[in-house]
Amino acid sequence: MNILAVDTASSTLTLAVRTDTKFEELSKQPQGMKHSEIIMPSIMELCSESGITIQDLDLLVCTRGPGSFTGLRIGMAAVKGLAFGLGKPVSSVSTLEYHARCIQDFDGAVVSVIDARKNKFYLGVFECKEGNCSRVMQDIDGNAEDLTKALSGYESILVTGPDKNVFAPVLADLFPQKRITTECQETVSPGTALIELGLEKYETQGPDDIGQGPVYLRKSDAEIALEEKQRGESNG
Predict the structure, then answer these.
(1) Chain Cα centroid distance, residue 47
(2) First-to-final CA distance of the chain
(3) I want to staple 112 with a disulfide (CB 3.0 to 4.6 A). Which of 132, 134, 161, 228 is the partner?
(4) For residues 137 and 166, what is the distance between their CA atoms, to the nearest angstrom?
(5) What count of Cα atoms within 13 Å lies in the side-chain half-sphere of residue 133?
């Protein structure tokens, strides 16, 4: 099976292609998060390096959030556009779960984190044991204090994700008695983790519904501004 995986949820564009005989992956950090300008040329480049064409793809995998509003829209639009044109299925997965999936050799709680700005983070908590990770709580838009209950039973906590180095010290200050780390001896690459998780979801749950779009944990600034304007008009 030829699988393309795409992640545009953060400032890093991650792409991977896996065929029956090859695996190719690339990560780019375009200035200004201009994923829209490089995503399609990068996909074509990666397919070529893998010895296939876009038409040879069998499954398209992408992150659906949480993450950058604009980034998620760009990634899902590109993947769904390809899927529609090729008549191929899409399997989208939680951004935070896919980052946790990179961890292979750790027993304890794994906290996956993306900086959500405005003094908050997108957070997911997973329990990892003997190489298997299961979800402890649903993804949230919050702070370290919101994880108190979920992390209460764990002495060892690994922080992962694009903004692990920002969040780990905050978590360590809140839980000084726990062992907080950002390093793991054994990991897999983001592209590998994304392909594995997307394929697993596809095989157990089937392809995405045609109406599946990005999953946002908060309203965009535009939505908030519109609501405030509408409230002002109704009050006036």
Answers:
(1) 22
(2) 60
(3) 161
(4) 21
(5) 26
